[in-house]
Recover the amino acids of this structure.
């Protein structure tokens, strides 16, 4: 199972702090565990550092991937 983070969070919302993401991910993880839903093996996200750190804390065994769009945007910006 893959977890696609931009579909969970409004991209137009103001930036969130790491504790906000951690709280949301803990709630999601608890809900998944209570309902016997497998935890994500892969998490696809943008470059938000707070979100990245929180996913590493809450889902340490999941692989993390960046959207190719963000990688391309950074390459073209260089």
């Amino acid at each position: 199972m893959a977890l696609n983070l931009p579909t969970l969070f409004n991209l137009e919302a103001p930036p969130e702090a790491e504790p906000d993401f951690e709280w949301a991910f803990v709630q999601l993880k608890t809900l998944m565990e209570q309902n016997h839903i497998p935890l994500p093996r892969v998490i696809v996200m943008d470059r938000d550092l707070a979100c990245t750190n929180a996913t590493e804390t809450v889902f340490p065994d999941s692989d993390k991937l960046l959207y190719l769009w963000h990688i391309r945007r950074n390459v073209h910006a260089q």
Observations:
- The chain has a mean pLDDT of 81.
